[in-house]
From TrEMBL:
It comes from Photobacterium frigidiphilum. It comes from the Bacteria. This is Endonuclease/exonuclease/phosphatase family protein. The lineage of its organism: Bacteria, Pseudomonadati, Pseudomonadota, Gammaproteobacteria, Vibrionales. The chain crosses the membrane at residues 9-28, 34-54. The keyword Membrane applies.
């Protein structure tokens, strides 16, 4: 039997150590982006284990096996279920449409087959918005986005079967918009609703603007949740362009619950373990997440739509 050398131990251990240390000190835009993609160490260990099998080194294979399970466990799945029972279910549908989306027909077909209670869209063009509002106005009569002097705040559109109250926008210094209001399903207590779509961190400037919006929203929620006017039930939803495996994600919205699922990129043939979770939804007790599911067969966007099943605890 071949030995497990110190060099082999070093090679197999170092990527995980570098990743963990990097996550704790990832305050550089490109570094944080790279470390958010857990598919990189996962693929490394897949290749390493294949190589050890080729060398017929059982000890190296056995030593490396826990690492691949670790990175597979960390990576978000297509479906996340936290409660086995979900009475009086509320369904929230969120979807980054993509500005260049050539056709919304798959979306219309899905919503006709599977009605939802709340729809939250990002990257909504005026053309998309007009089509959605007109085609869905009977089923979703309560709408925010597309009105004069409102437009589509940071490309967002909210459609609902149930009343929306006191809807307004809050702008960051860079001009990115947060939507805040009350969503009131008739069989539930009023729910504070926040939606946002910070920019993709493709450059240091956009990374800074994204982080500023996240910080603004975090402070807004924390300050508001303790006021007399705030409902205890809260939803924060949107495309946040922030991986769920990043250290920054873990620091957001203390006391809230979230169930990350893989949502980007939605490329044909791309395996789930090569995607990341950036389309999020957080809730605050007594509102709880039963299940979140990323839909696999919606074409037209580089994001997968996500359906979240919610329940209100007594």
């Amino acid at each position: 039997m071949k030995k497990l050398s110190l060099r082999s131990i070093f090679i197999l251990t170092m990527p995980t150590l570098v990743w963990v240390v990097g996550l704790l000190f990832s305050n550089i835009w490109w570094q944080e982006n790279i470390l958010s993609v857990t598919a990189i160490p996962f693929l490394f260990y897949c290749l390493a284990l294949i190589f050890t099998l080729f060398l017929r080194n059982t000890l190296q294979f056995t030593f490396g096996l826990p690492f691949i399970f670790l990175w597979g466990y960390i990576h978000p799945l297509d479906n996340s279920k936290s409660l086995s029972q979900c009475p009086q279910t509320l369904k929230v549908f969120q979807y980054n449409l993509r500005y260049e989306n050539p056709s919304l027909d798959p979306l219309f077909y899905y919503l006709q087959q599977y009605p939802q209670h709340l729809l939250v869209f990002q990257e909504t063009t005026p053309e998309h918005g007009s089509m959605l509002k007109e085609a869905l106005k009977t089923q979703y009569p309560y709408q925010f986005g597309g009105q004069p002097r409102v437009g589509y705040p940071s490309g967002q559109l909210v459609l609902s079967q149930y009343p929306l109250f006191n809807m307004k926008t809050i702008a960051t210094q860079a001009g990115h918009q947060i939507i805040h209001g009350i969503w009131h399903p008739p069989t539930h207590d009023p729910i504070e609703l926040y939606t946002a779509h910070p920019p993709s961190p493709r450059s240091e400037q956009l990374w800074t603007e994204r982080n500023a919006l996240l910080k603004t929203l975090n402070h807004l929620v924390e300050d508001y949740i303790g006021t007399d006017n705030a409902s205890p039930a809260q939803i924060i939803v949107g495309d946040f362009n922030l991986s769920s495996t990043s250290e920054r994600y873990q620091t957001l919205f203390g006391g809230f619950n979230s169930q990350p699922v893989s949502s980007w990129p939605n490329w044909s043939g791309l395996r789930q373990y090569l995607t990341i979770s950036i389309d999020h939804l957080w809730t605050h007790y007594p509102l709880e997440i039963c299940e979140r599911e990323a839909l696999m067969n919606m074409e037209g966007s580089d994001h997968r739509p996500i359906v979240t099943y919610l329940t209100m605890q007594k």
